[in-house]
Amino acid sequence: xxxxxxxxxxxxxxxxxxxxxxxxxxxxxxxxxxxxxxxxxxxxxxxxxxxxxxxxxxxxxxxxxxxxxxxxxxxxxxxxxxxxxxxxxxxxxxxxxxxxxxxxxxxxxxxxxxxxxxxxxxxxxxxxxxxxxxxxxxxxxxxxxxxxxxxxxxxxxxxxxxxxxxxxxxxxxxxxxxxxxxxxxxxxxxxxxxxxxxxxxxxxxxxxxxxxxxxxxxxxxxxxxxxxxxxxxxxxxxxxxxxxxxxxxxxxxxxxxxxxxxxxxxxxxxxxxxxxxxxxxxxxxxxxxxxxxxxxxx
Length: 298
Hints:
The protein has a two-stranded antiparallel sheet with strand order 1-2. The chain has 298 residues and is an all-alpha fold. It contains ten helices and two strands, in the order H-H-H-H-E-E-H-H-H-H-H-H. The protein has helices at 13-20, 24-58, 63-78, 81-104, 133-166, 169-177, 182-212, 224-232, 247-277, 283-291, and strands spanning 113-114, 117-118. Helices cover 69% and strands 1% of the residues. It is flat. The chain has a single domain, classed as MetI-like fold (Orthogonal Bundle). 20% of the residues are buried.
């Protein structure tokens, strides 16, 4: 990065540290923060979409849809996250490869399952062994996104289902009295009002999602936890670093990052809650009404 970094062995003190903190490995460490933020930016709306579909299915009058929605919510919420993350990613990866194997290698006569081994033809591998490393990382990241969205979508479904039930039933009955169909009342009456009831639960779910991002490390994605452990130690299986064990400093930096990020999230969510609660017949809406300055006397 700096011209004087051409010979780090001749440096010491702040100049050596500035070269160390701007080398290629550290630049990958800094870019991994973007990986975490990208995961949140993609996963949050996907999980919300899964949750909305699950909640809508759970309250459906069609029995198979209702059973599917309730089964999805109960099954995912009932399995420990760490077990689901480790198992589902492997199962999803093998499912993709099995489908490609059936399409690309119809003449394959060897069994796919050989004890604990899962063997498909080379053409069915995802990604191919000859693919660039970037494709392997993108594939692992995509699997992580799908897994996060399904897991947190189940929790979002439970929150949204409760929010839908919290909307006063009299409003739905009034909509029916005015000639609205059930679908119209759902879209125009129920959905717009449920968000104010759902936001506290969704806010907590967002905080949990932030805290769950270190699970990327378990899914083979080089995230901030991976790099903090990798370059914070004095050596790895492949490299030795010119410093003692500094992992406490790297993980302290991650602690500060997560605390700042959650604080910013709290501020944004509080403002969003106030905006959605204004004029609503809820405890927060009543508090805002009482706190509003009184208008001029007539």
